[in-house]
Amino acid sequence: MGGGVRTPHRRGRAGALTNASVSEPRRIPLEGYRELPPGEMVEEAERFLALMRCRRSVRDFSERPVPREILERCLLAAGTAPNGANRQPWRFVVVSDPDVKRRIREAAEEEERAFYSGRAPREWLDALAHLGTDEHKPFLERAPWLVVIFAESWEERPDGTRAKNYYVTESVGIATGILITALHSVGLATLTHTPSPMKFLNEVLGRPENERPFLVLVVGYPAEGATVPEIRKKPLDEIAVFLEPARGTQG
Ligand code: IYR
């Protein structure tokens, strides 16, 4: 990883000899960057905003199949995410096998039954009430694909020792956001599903102990006549604070 060349180097401050074992990374030109003229920038931002405003978490899925090649490309897009030390601490387990989906549904519904009938505090259930969710998760079998996302807390070196990964939750969260956006951009619906606890996913999917289940992304076409809860997204002044120089002051 990293493609660095191990060369002693003397680039330290004031010509001091620096650590001879630090590798000098190879650098390449920034390729593919495109700058837009300011007017087009605004238009493009508007277009993207309109696209994203149409994304909703869907719970009514159609059984219509989705070709694997679409998933493959969207997963590669997710894999471009910025992440800690470029360790790419994610693993996507992509399931269309009906038996595996059934096992995931059964185990998830068992956890959810416990969640909805006692484990969740009243305050949490009250916060969810407007979404109309309950312990029934038919979408886990109906939707053509489940992408089960795991976060790798560490990876094993060839000598068997453990190399720690960094900013794992942030990295996997960003990759998941890109995956959701990629799938939405090609006209697919998703649902971020988080059965709690999720440890059963390691067992059902045969994943090793360094992989922690992060979430289940349900992917497919919405069912005909699918409905979603009526919710509102916060306006800009509730989600952002700008700190700019006061008008009329220069430098
Ligand atoms: N995991 C449960 C509960 C749930 C929790 C949150 I936070 C949500 O935004 C939605 C649901 C379930 O999937 O039903």
What is the helix/strand order? HHEHHHEEEHEHEH
Helix count, per DSSP? 8
CATH third-tier fold name of the domain at 57-223: NADH Oxidase
Q: Any idea what the radius of gyration is?
A: 23 Å
Residue fraction in strands: 5-15%
Number of strands: 6
Oligomer: single chain
Bound compounds, each kind once, are:
3-iodo-tyrosine
User: Outline, from the CA principal axes?
Assistant: globular
CATH architecture of the domain at 57-223: 3-Layer(aba) Sandwich
Quick summary:
With 251 residues, the protein is an alpha+beta fold. The chain has eight helices and six strands.
Describe what this molecule looks like in 3D.
The chain is an alpha+beta fold and 251 residues long. It has a domain at 57-223: 3-Layer(aba) Sandwich (NADH Oxidase), CATH 3.40.109. 35% of the residues lie in helices and 14% in strands. It contains 8 helices and 6 strands, in the order ααβαααβββαβαβα. Strands 1-2-6-5 form a 4-stranded antiparallel β-sheet. The chain has a two-stranded antiparallel sheet with strand order 3-4. Strand 3 (154-156) and strand 4 (162-164) form a beta hairpin. Helix 2 packs across helix 6 (168-185). The longest helix is centred in the middle third of the chain and has 22 residues, at 98-119. It is globular and about 60 Å long. The two termini are 44 Å apart. The model is unreliable at 1-17 (pLDDT under 50). It binds 3-iodo-tyrosine (IYR). 3-iodo-tyrosine binds next to helix 3.
